[in-house]
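Field reference: sequence -> structure
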Amino acid sequence: MLFDLASLTKPLVTAPLAFEHLDLDRDWASELGFKDWPGPITPRLLLSHAAGLPPWLPYTGESVAEQVANFQAWASHPLLRKAAWGESTYSDIGFRLLAEILEIAAGRDWRAMGEELSGLSAAPWAECPISMPPGADMDAWGLATDTPFPPQHPSLPHDANARAGMKGHAGFGATPESAANWLEKWNKKYPKLMAIETNKSNDGQIWGLGLQRLRAGQGSFAELLNRLATKGPSVIADEGTDEPLPAPSHVPAAPSEWWFHLGYTGPALFVRPSDGACILLLCNRLKNASQLLNVEELRARRWQLLEKACGNTDSNSKLNQH
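Structure field:
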């Protein structure tokens, strides 16, 4: 089965390509068309979401520089908000620019480079993941542009942001087998480069270069992950769509040794560079044919998958560990 990695494309494909092909401290602002920007736009800042770019804008054919300069509907939706240069604000737009920079620097298509490096599959796919209804992009789209919402397409990712311009931030998929093959190679090199405290968001969240620091504390994924016996990379795949039992409440504490990234469609990546522990969850957030799990329900699904990996719950589910 093919899983839509969604934003896990960022740490598993785009960030590794940036390390392989780019000078992380070169300023690309002028070449990308940005004028009077508050600071440089470097791959390092884009990897840490600190180049001052907003979380999201619909892809309408304009350049990012033109769109940001001309956009007026700020604060009309949580995805449509300004960001401060030098402060981490999670941005799909920043990783779109990383893909554009990679294509300029390497003279090759980002998707082709990603497939060659990782062995993962770039959309459009012949074998499609589970179809999912649109998410927050549909709500924000009409507030941001008069361009029609992109129609569903069976060979492309579910969300409008990805379908209309998925370079850099989304668009790759993985089977359990292809994920396991790439994760073994990825884990030997990239966590040490990415899990480096680089910038903070305005709520104190710590970002490295494509990965975020996971907080410890009661009910945290970090506390659960510390009980796992696995060392090295492990892929846990779940094809189910049953509604999960609630996960325990999370009381955040200090940053842990674990770093992570989440995908909107359900998958999650957790790494602990100190000993090479690395867990990739392949799951989806489909609740039924027309509904998605909300944030807490999706957290509960991820929690149950990790608990099964610990051997603390029954294994009567479609769970495969590689």
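Note: Residues 176-194 form the longest helix (19 residues).
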